[in-house]
Amino acid sequence: MTATLSAASRHEVLTARLAALRSEREQALAETIPTGAGDMADRATNVDGHVRLAMLEQRIATVESDLANSHETGPHAENDPISVGDVVTLDLGDGPETFLLGSVDEAGGSFDVITPSSPLGQALRGAKLGSTVAYSIGNRTLHATVTAVS
């Protein structure tokens, strides 16, 4: 699978995701505002609504941060280090697989994603084409070879 995610399309996907999250927040806010005294069940629903709002606010902040940190990039040169937003092809030992190094919101369902905060994502940041990175999951150390970057 060959895939690229241009800075423009990444920005477009993030902007659309941000709009959807804001709309969902507005709906959750409307559902959370208490109407009358209510009973204990209404109060429990209200607490659940506030938890949902807090989670939406966190997702919105993450997407806003991703948008603020996105930058125009040209073609990926062979010696450029891997960075967030790159599409990488890795050999994990069973053949090549292609991933987006970024957030699930950026992928928009088009790519399998490796998040930058995951053990593999941390190992990939700064790696270069042809390098083999090691990362730990639990007490196991695994390896991945970078076979393509775009």
What is the topology?
Blueprint: H1 7-32, H2 40-69, E1 87-91, E2 96-101, H3 104-107, E3 112-114, H4 119-124, E4 132-137, E5 140-149
Parallel strand pairs: 2-3
Antiparallel strand pairs: 1-2, 1-5, 4-5
Helix pairs in contact: 1-2
Features:
2 domains, alpha+beta
Please give a quick description of this structure.
With 150 residues, the chain is α+β, with helices and mostly antiparallel strands.
Q: What would your notes on this structure say?
A:
The protein is of the alpha+beta class and 150 residues long. The protein folds into two domains: 7-69; 87-149, Chitinase A, domain 3. The chain is 44% helix and 20% strand. The protein has four helices and five strands; from the N terminus they run H-H-E-E-H-E-H-E-E. Helix 1 packs antiparallel against helix 2. The longest helix is centred in the middle third of the chain and has 30 residues, at 40-69. It is elongated, with a radius of gyration of 20 Å. The mean pLDDT is 79.
